[in-house]
Amino acid sequence: RTLEIWLRTALEKGELHLAYQPVVMANDTRVVGFEALLRWTHPEKGVIPPYKFIPVAEEARLITPIGEWVLRTACMEAANWPADVRIAVNVSPEQLNDPNFVTSVVSALAHSGLSPSRLELEVTESVFLREGTRAIAVLDQILGLGIKLALDDFGTGYSSLGYLRKTQFSTIKVDRSFVQGAAKKSAESLAIIRAVVAMADSLGMTTTAEGAETEDEFQLIRELGCTKVQGYLFGRPMPAEDARELIATAS
Ligand code: G
Ligand code: G
Ligand code: MN
Ligand code: NA
User: Fold this and answer.
1) Would you state the pLDDT for residue 163?
2) Which residues line ligand 2 (CB under 6 A)?
3) Ligand 3 centroid to 205 CA: how many Å?
4) What is the CATH number of domain 2-250?
5) Which keywords belong to this entry (predicted)?
6) Ligand 2, atom nearest to 212 Cα
7) What is the pTM of this model?
8) Of 216, 206, 142, 149, which Cα lies nearest the Cα of 179?
9) CB-based contacts of 47, cutoff 8 Å, min separation 6
10) Which of 40, 145, 170, 204 stands 20 to 30 A from 120 (CA)?
11) 90 CB under 6 A from ligand 1?
């Protein structure tokens, strides 16, 4: 409850900011994008981690105004980057239920001047759970704008694969539990990553392996044929200025 009360004013007090984590190509480690990750620094409590406050924001319906701010801020920042660097933004199921969602996305693009093809929205399988048909319709409108979709945390939810026929995802993000499991020689994790990569290939989607922390994990991901990699090995979520510097030095 107290968290909710603080969160209500966090936006206007400027306590929220975005961190940007690089996404690189698995074949040559070129930086091809960043994922925007929300951060909250409370003046007295210090840093409050997303796993604590995002569920609160979702329940209190604060995720809609916060999500709009995230989209606008991320698009404005990405508009400064070279045209071949994309921005990925996480979207909660609650946001897809907001009747103004598509309008707010259009407005974030218009205001920033960012090309729609440079924006990727990340949703989890859970958006298809409740009111699945409505989520599909909203995601169709998003695709119609030329925006890309990524399926986040793949393999950790309630994997029904039916929606993969109905919604055109560009990318499947393989949850880091599989990446780290595979690196620890878990035969199951290895088999699952192989299967996901094969499925993505045949459906015309790319894969992003999450949570690569070591060179061994990265080599394994490469061998397994994942398209892109995200993880501490290539960069932690960082301030906007550091992301710009990384782009400048990497190109
Ligand atoms: O750094 P990490 O702890 O940032 O993020 C934890 C979780 O919080 C991630 O799984 C991510 O999906 C979620 N998250 C981070 N930023 C946002 C955001 O802007 N919007 C939503 N809805 N979720 C976010
Ligand atoms: O939206 P999603 O759940 O995919 O958010 C990515 C989460 O994973 C964020 O919390 C981010 O900080 C975290 N993350 C990114 N790279 C790594 C990594 O290499 N190791 C670990 N442990 N976490 C990571
Ligand atoms: Mn994500
Ligand atoms: Na994820």
Assistant:
1) 86
2) 21, 37, 90, 122, 152-153, 176, 210-213, 230-232, 237
3) 17
4) 3.20.20.450
5) Membrane, Transmembrane, Transmembrane helix
6) 19
7) 0.97
8) 216
9) 39, 40, 41
10) 40
11) yes
Q: What is the pLDDT of residues 129-160, one digit of tens each?
A: 877 788 999 999 999 999 999 999 998 877 67
- Decide whether any atom of ligand 1 lies within 6 Å of the 37 Cβ: yes
How high does pLDDT run on average in the chain? 94
Give pLDDT, residue 251.
64
> C-alpha angle with apex 155: 152 to 37, nearest 5 degrees?
25
> What is residue 215's predicted lDDT score, i.e. its pLDDT?
96
The model's pLDDT over 207-244, given as tens digits with 9 standing for 90+, comes to 999 999 999 999 999 999 999 999 999 999 999 999 99
Residue with the nearest Cα to atom 13 of ligand 1? 50
Long-range contacts from 235-238, C-beta under 8 angstroms, 24+ separation: 235/21, 235/22, 236/19, 236/21, 237/19, 237/20, 237/21, 237/35, 237/37, 237/39, 238/19, 238/20, 238/21
CA distance 25 to 108: 27
| ipTM, two decimals | 0.96
